[in-house]
Amino acid sequence: MLRAGPSQEEIRRHNLGTLLRHVHLGGPMSRAELTHLMGLNRSTIMALTADLTAAGLVREELPRDTGKAGRPSLVVLPETHRVYVLAFDVGVDRLAAARIGLGGVILDRREAERRRGPFDLGQVVTTLAGFARQMLRGVRADAVCVGAAVAFCGAVRKSDGVVRIGPNVGAEEVPLGEELSKRLSLGLPVVVGNDANLGALAEHARGAGVGCRDLVYLHGDVGIGGGIVVNGQLLSGADGYGGEVGHMVLNPGGRPCGCGSRGCFEAEVGERALLEYAGRQGGAAGRDGIRAIVTAAELGDAAAKEALRRVGHWLGLGVANLVNVLNPEMVIFGGMLRDIYLGAAAQVRSTLNTTALRATREGLRLRTAALGDDATLMGAAELAFADVLADPLEALSRAAM
Amino acid sequence: MLRAGPSQEEIRRHNLGTLLRHVHLGGPMSRAELTHLMGLNRSTIMALTADLTAAGLVREELPRDTGKAGRPSLVVLPETHRVYVLAFDVGVDRLAAARIGLGGVILDRREAERRRGPFDLGQVVTTLAGFARQMLRGVRADAVCVGAAVAFCGAVRKSDGVVRIGPNVGAEEVPLGEELSKRLSLGLPVVVGNDANLGALAEHARGAGVGCRDLVYLHGDVGIGGGIVVNGQLLSGADGYGGEVGHMVLNPGGRPCGCGSRGCFEAEVGERALLEYAGRQGGAAGRDGIRAIVTAAELGDAAAKEALRRVGHWLGLGVANLVNVLNPEMVIFGGMLRDIYLGAAAQVRSTLNTTALRATREGLRLRTAALGDDATLMGAAELAFADVLADPLEALSRAAM
């Protein structure tokens, strides 16, 4: 609600955040472009830029190469190497961490395999905190960590950020953020989000979905998670569990699912179904197993082709249901689903066309994650940058304490 | 975006709209309550109330009975009999119209049966415009019609408000709003919305869903439509077709659906399935047919009970899928689904509990439409009031021209 006069100070903070978000997401841009984008006058943009420069959040310099004749104008760009966040990703088969600078640049990155089996919080936290320590060693003396966040392959409760359940990694009621924050000892809270939700956030902010107001991101990682963007905002649902599309039932009485039900999206389309249909249950699982089947199908292997066709049918049906319910502009396939979609695109399209209403699908675009395997990690970084983008100077002074 | 200073005039317009919305949705309230709700000081509230009073949008009077001792303070209330909209509803079996006053009060109402069969735009428009003429006859000389809207049982394209498709009434590419506006000759555009979307809007604004940020409204009318509210806003989707849940496939290879697919939510749960399962295909259809089955089941009729159990199972599965995807706080059953849900609630709950994730369903409430059969009509009224609530004085002066 607009009060009878937001104060000059409130307006300034808001505008500082907006300007910083523009260069964080859009990259280097001239003051003239910012003046145009923000609808403010030149002297205001100059003052805002001066404030952010003084705080060390942006700097101005000559552009690399404008391709135009004449004297180029200065561009404002984010202080990528000075202001950064720590982003983590806990997937079924991997633990990843990155130091990501303002502007969304991966400055440093670590990754380890995760052995499948019961969830060991201590071991996960030790690995991730170890990665963080290694990455913080070489950091410039004036660099500031402004946030930390984890993408987790399970449902995360909104009210307290606790992992409610992650059936594919055997996790339940795990205070991951709190434990990791303690172990990092940076005086920063660690925010936790569902990996597919964060993948959606990242693809919307700087991936395949830039400019889309309504999209669905589907993330395959043994199970299937979803992130739904409605009118430019991530759908969280009442308790934070919005987008658990993996447990939408597509085939009643079908394949048993880890959740206790049958015929769920992830039971019919996930890794296990594909390996079994291809007769490769005993072989490589995970990403390698999926890729081997897609490659075999390309080389003409009949069992692999048939397995992809079957899984592609259910994937098309799941997408059709989401398209009818949500009428998104785009559906993005990430994680393992990227490979499965690429190997089964014709079947997916065919089932989609016979199942979704013409009205809901006629404007639809199907895409793979532009950020590839880093979508979830980049989404965690966006979550970690949220405070500094909301109120840059305040967040920075808190972080620098 | 906050510009460097929204003008005093912009702030005043915004605040006028907000105050009017409070009394429109919340009913009579004192200036003290408005001061508290809007976070403004008393003199600003007094000035805003004076402006709205001068325009004839609200008035102040002593409350009916406060139940408290001492001198009661004046309450601000909407000028229900002076400021109204025309709301229309085109369902499969009925055409309805109402004159609805500010504050959401039905001042007058007309209804006619609609014969099933191909869509006859001329006949629909003639009937609705005839209702409007009848209702406008007895209106006070100083009354102002500030808007008009139709709830339609089909998909409505966002870009131009044209009915894209209404399979259950045989409609396709119908310029209903434009034609009705011409025939009404009130110099007002007629906005068109999907009936279930508008039912969701009404139940959220003044029905079972007041105070819920995330809800799903399911509307049964031969077919099944849905309206989804996310974070307090109606989900429209990229082209306006969000919420077409009736064509989510629940039972692949199941009952044929009017859309050309099989096993859709509305094919498994709609009127036709229930009548057939109960062995009553030749008997009464529509609302009466459904109610007869529910009554028969209550009286112990085995076929009716079994029919409700079967349909209740699919209804539970459809709800479970929506709950997993959207994690709403509440699901509301309206139209014919109200009766079906009341007759099959135990089965619906049972299937929901075995299918939806515990996390997504543990906070969920299931409710019937508090506005009953008027939910869609009331939703059309909310759509028609949108302009006057956004900028009261401007919209009023346009309407009074």
TrEMBL record, chains A, B:
InterPro entries given in the database record: ATPase_NBD (IPR043129), ROK (IPR000600), WH-like_DNA-bd_sf (IPR036388), WH_DNA-bd_sf (IPR036390)
What is the protein name given in its UniProt record? ROK family protein
Question: Mind telling me which Gene3D superfamilies this protein's record contains?
Answer: 3.30.420.40, Winged helix-like DNA-binding domain superfamily/Winged helix DNA-binding domain
Coiled coil feature spans: none
Annotated SUPFAM superfamilies = Actin-like ATPase domain, Winged helix' DNA-binding domain
**Taxonomic lineage:** Bacteria, Bacillati, Actinomycetota, Actinomycetes, Streptosporangiales
Q: What superkingdom heads the lineage?
A: Bacteria
State the family it belongs to.
Belongs to the ROK (NagC/XylR) family.
